[in-house]
Design a protein that fits this description.
alpha/beta
Amino acid sequence: MSLWAIVPVKPLRRGKSRLSEILSEDERTNLNHQLFVHTIEILKEVDAITDILVVSRDSDVLTEARDLQVRTVTENGTPELNAALRRATLFSKNFSTEGVLIVPADLPLMTPDDVKAFLDARTEPPCIVLAPDRRRQGTNLLFTTPADLLTFSYGKESFDRHIELAKEKKAQVVIVENERIALDLDLPEDYALLNSAKAIPVFIEI
């Protein structure tokens, strides 16, 4: 059995557009790059994760992912996160995975121990484990077993939707509350919160 982590990554120059009022395009590109590398490094320290798969339509991201010795899938066609995750999940299922962990590349405070504790909460299939964002609206970490249990529904209010979708499949739902996982970096107020708490990790040098 194997457990795959899937990391969707937007083109580095286009990600974090909602921070455009406080960061220039070059600053956001640099931030996105460092968050991406940070995410891969964190996941590589988690023993339960046997493979990491990066999904992106940014050729530079895919090249760097391979340099970091992780698998890649090129996102093609109409850009759409849920469809890309579906394709990546079906790809990973070819390798008889125990399940998949979806990890956005914008959780600057997440640690390997956070991911380990999150995965320790999983149960026998069918099961999903979720960690919400700090507004309890979005889904920041999601583990699902079997891998193709859910039709992903990322977007506004995805946390509640994923719970309902899992219940429709009669899967057990486990919710993990973790302040570090909950803090994603989408809006200027997220950035201000990290800055005011002097919690911007040292790796983010913009």
